[in-house]
Amino acid sequence: VLTFTWPAKGEQGAVPISIDCGTRATRYEEDLVDVLCPPSCDHSRLSVWGSRVYASVSSICAAAVHR
C-alpha cells in the first residue's frame, strides 16, 4: 500500500531518496519513505492500481502524479 504524506507547513521532512520512474513500493520495507521522482517520467507508460491508496506494485512516481 502506498500512502503519500507531506510535511506540515514549515516542517522539515526527511532527505528524499532519488528513484527511477518505474520504482515500485515493493522495493522498500519501511512504511514511509520520502522519494524524489525524475522530471522526465512518461507516466502514460507506467502502471497504477488504486486511488488515494495505491497497490504496492504501482509505480511510485505515476501514483504520485495520479493522486
Describe this structure as you would to a colleague.
- This protein is low in regular secondary structure and 67 residues long.
- It has one domain.
- 10% of the residues lie in helices and 12% in strands.
- A two-stranded parallel ribbon has the order 1-2. It has a two-stranded antiparallel sheet with strand order 3-4.
- Strand 3 and strand 4 form a beta hairpin.
- The model has no long low-confidence stretch (mean pLDDT 80).
What is the string of helix and strand elements? Answer: EEEEH
Radius of gyration: 12 Å
Helical content class: 10-25%
Number of domains: 1
| Cα-to-Cα separation, first versus last residue | 14 Å
The coarse overall form would be globular
Portion of residues in beta strands equals 5-15%
Counted by DSSP, the helix tally is 1
Q: Poorly predicted ranges (pLDDT <50, ≥5 residues)?
A: none
Largest sheet: 2 strands, parallel
SS content category = little secondary structure
Number of strands: 4
Q: In which order are the strands of the major sheet placed? A: 1-2
Mean pLDDT: 80
In short:
By secondary structure, this protein is low in regular secondary structure. It has one helix at 60-66, and strands at residues 17-18, 35-36, 50-51, 53-54.
